[in-house]
Amino acid sequence: MGRSSGETYEALLSHLAPGARCTRIQPADGNRALLGSADLSQFDGVFITGSPLHLYQDSPECRRIITFMQAVFASGTPSFGSCAGLQVATVAAGGSVRSMGQRREAGFARRIFPTDAGRDHPLLRGRPPAFDAPAVHTDEVAQLPPGATLLASNSTTHVQAAEIRSEGGVFWGVQYHPEISLCEVAAALRRQSKDLIEHGLAAGQEDVERKAALVQALHEAPNRLDLAWQLGLDEQVVAQERRTLEVRNFITHLVLPARTQRARS
């Protein structure tokens, strides 16, 4: 699919919160003025999407998006992020990010499990003791910032979900991608075929295409148990209402209460 990360989130939010007005911005773009905390405080919630940026690099784009995230924290507006969004919030609050080296999570993160703190946290409410989720990333959180809470992990990526509090703001984030469809997973596999082959996850282009075709077919026919079985997936990934649970929980437990409180004040 040719849809951007921002467009993906906007489409999902239109489904989860019909009638919500969304404003898409590109804080890493040096040609655009950054919104400050006063501007951001007028929003009900902020979503930080995936990104090709590597937060351990000192680039103008990285500095801008970190500055933006610090303004989000200072505004007090609830925020949510996936993949690079979690990494942005981590660095903005004083943590660190690193390359995964030879390791990869490509297509799906497997056997994610809530920590003791995560089992009782509303971000993961409704998730089972272990679950899979769409995931495509080559960087990861190396160290969470002071005061952050690790909510979920797996054997490949230690920080799969976290709550980060900084400067009066609260952020919920995940390393995986609850917002993307299986169609987008298939497109990501095809885009990253060279990397998958180089890292030994596929023997050749044919292997990547075979996997992507299965994922695409399951997107088009989510009730086909044979496809889900071949991919080792269950309703936690296949069913949209389960796959997008963290975004829904964020809206329910942080955005709507904050909006109600603002309306009363």
TrEMBL record:
Gene3D superfamilies assigned: 3.40.50.880
EC category name: hydrolase
GO molecular function, one term: hydrolase activity
Residue ranges of domain Glutamine amidotransferase in the record: 40-182
Catalytic activity, EC: 3.4.-.-
Entry keyword Ribosomal protein: no
Pfam families: GATase
Keywords linked to the UniProt accession: Glutamine amidotransferase, Hydrolase
The organism's place on the tree of life at top rank: Bacteria
Protein name (database record): Type 1 glutamine amidotransferase
Record organism: Novosphingobium kalidii
